[in-house]
């Protein structure tokens, strides 16, 4: 399994991620992946899916700056970054050879990671989706700062490599032994698993 494992490093160094992650903020992407790792450990959810969704959750962002200021009025009304992000992350993951179930779970967690979109109205989040929502919210910086304060790519890469090591260790100790044993459905409710 692990020889075919798609790492966070593989994702963050791809040209699609390099182009789009800075729109939402590279610092914010990395810190959300780190938060997702901590929460996944606490909540006994899949660290692999959680960190991938955390890293890529804002890959659908575009710039909402107007004359140097974040234009919240336009953002609140027109934003569809959760939809674009879900599709973009899914395409990137599949391109890298990700397990289809995991790619789907990551994409859906990104789709529902923010209540900024009407698409999240009346949706009951799975535990994994709630985790990504919470990991995003744990960033102590809010709004404009969250998306504008940056770290350089070398620091992002170093922190992502550290996470890759931790995820690797967790996967080796995973009770499912192979990801196909849980079919990438970690974090879903029992009712959904029966469907
Ligand atoms: Fe977001
Ligand atoms: Fe975010």
UniProtKB/TrEMBL annotation:
The lineage of its organism: Bacteria, Bacillati, Bacillota, Clostridia, Halanaerobiales. Keywords: Hydrolase. This is Metal dependent phosphohydrolase. NCBIfam families: HDIG. GO terms for molecular function: hydrolase activity. Transmembrane segments: none annotated. PROSITE patterns: HD. It comes from the Bacteria. Residues 25-141 form the HD domain. It holds the Pfam family HD.
């Amino acid at each position: 399994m692990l020889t075919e494992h798609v790492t966070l490093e593989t994702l963050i160094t791809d040209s699609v991620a390099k182009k789009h992650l800075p729109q939402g903020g590279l610092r914010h992407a990395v810190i959300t992946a780190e938060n997702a790792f901590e929460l996944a450990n606490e909540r006994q959810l899949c660290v692999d899916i959680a960190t991938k969704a955390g890293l890529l959750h804002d890959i659908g962002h575009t710039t909402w700056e107007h004359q140097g200021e974040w234009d919240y009025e336009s953002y609140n009304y027109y934003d569809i970054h959760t939809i674009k992000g879900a599709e973009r992350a899914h395409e990137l993951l599949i391109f890298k050879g990700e397990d289809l179930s995991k790619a789907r779970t990551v994409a859906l967690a990104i789709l529902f990671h923010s209540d900024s979109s009407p698409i999240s109205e009346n949706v009951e989040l799975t535990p994994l989706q709630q985790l990504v929502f919470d990991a995003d919210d744990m960033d102590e910086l809010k709004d404009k700062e969250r998306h504008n304060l940056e770290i350089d790519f070398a620091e992002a890469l170093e922190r992502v490599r550290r996470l890759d090591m931790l995820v690797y260790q967790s996967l080796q100790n995973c009770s499912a032994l192979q990801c196909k044993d849980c079919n990438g459905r970690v974090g879903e409710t029992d009712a959904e698993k029966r469907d």
